[in-house]
Amino acid sequence: MSRKSSREPIGRPSSVSFRLRSLEYLLPWALAACTAWTAIFMFPTALTAWGMAFVALVLGAWSRAFPARAPSVMMLRAVLLLVGASALHLSPETAGAAGPFYFWPVTIACGFALLLERPWALGLFALCITEYALALWLLPPVNAWRDALASSILLIAFPAIALVFARSVQRSDAQVEASLTDVQTGLYNAAGLFAHGQELFHACRREKRPLSLALLQFRDMKDVSLILGRTAARTVFVNTVGALARATQGRSIAARTGREEFALLLPGMNQEQAKSLLEDRLGRPLRVVIEVRKRKVTIMLDSAILPARDRSPTLEALYDQVRHRLMRKRAQLNDPQPAAQDSPSAAVPLLEDTDSAPLSRLEINPTLPMSLDQLLSHGDPGAPKPRS
């Protein structure tokens, strides 16, 4: 592994910040509202106008349920909105491109200029101008040049101003996002989990939707590094981070909250759904499998998952409850409890367990079914026996 690549984040950090992708849905919903309002007073029988208002409403709902984590996804949605603008501009019943719906390409270019990085925004700006020019050419109005010049100045001036403002907004937003991101993994750090996760926590409370928090910890990473080497330990780390990054779909958040601890905040999922998602990504029981000396070595993960309940007024309180449950699981394995990591939330002297029922043996995930020495020598008669 090159020196340069070793410094790159392991996961695939989103190139669209949490705040910007959380605002994307407002743009198509604003287009839907303005289109419906215009249709009520000017084109009450124009099916094209009502149809495009519905399309914008659906695209907004899609953006809200699945925020764009990559600029290509956001660009795709912008192009779909631009196709809707073409349908309005090429419809004679809505007065064409010189009619009142010229605000579609203007709004698309201005709004996404604030959300997308400059190269993507400039590309979309060019597409908006091209769409408007083609619409004027294919369906020319009565006074083509006069109407075109009057409308095109808005299509050029407003997005240009938005591009100037976007540079300042995106620069400050990138600085905030960098302070909330773990440099090594590209996932959020503890501060990022609580800063962005608290918004999702309260949003799920308002919408009366479920929310679950999962914590995962290694217990043998030090043994992996000592016995198998740093390369094997990094492989385990990379595979785990990659699995968590792939598990972050929709509005979920993955974070590294400790040296060997990871958190996954899953809005819209109850405890069973969150458990199924983790098992789908990391197997059942949760584990990471690597190949060392042509033998497969399995590293188990300790985990705990709890849903948000009334006794969890904040995300910090829910985190403390999940972590307390995870420590309780590890204590029942009759292993020495490791040194407690500093909790990102306020210290809680006595935590009320959210589930007072005793933990079954099946609920406790052992870290290793056998020692690493036994794993390496397993199946090899000539291999030396591990020392007792």
Strand and helix map with partners:
Layout: H1 3-7, H2 18-23, H3 26-41, H4 47-65, H5 71-89, H6 103-115, H7 118-138, H8 144-179, H9 190-207, E1 211-217, H10 221-228, H11 230-247, E2 253-258, E3 261-267, H12 271-282, E4 287-292, E5 295-300, E6 302-307, H13 315-331, H14 372-377
Antiparallel strand pairs: 1-3, 1-6, 2-3, 4-5
Helix pairs in contact: 3-4, 4-5, 5-6, 5-7, 6-7, 6-8, 7-8, 10-11, 11-12
Walkthrough of the structure:
This protein folds into 2 domains: 9-179, no CATH class; 190-377, 2-Layer Sandwich (Alpha-Beta Plaits). The strands form 2 sheets. It has a 4-stranded antiparallel sheet, with helices on both faces. A hairpin with a 2-residue loop joins strand 2 and strand 3 (261-267). The two termini are 36 Å apart. Helix 6 packs parallel to helix 8 (144-179). The model is unreliable at 1-7 and 339-388 (pLDDT under 50). It has helices at residues 3-7, 18-23, 26-41, 47-65, 71-89, 103-115, 118-138, 144-179, 190-207, 221-228, 230-247, 271-282, 315-331, 372-377; strands at residues 211-217, 253-258, 261-267, 287-292, 295-300, 302-307. The protein is α+β, with helices and mostly antiparallel strands.
Features of this protein?
alpha+beta, two-stranded antiparallel ribbon, 2 domains, 388 residues, 6 strands, 55% helix
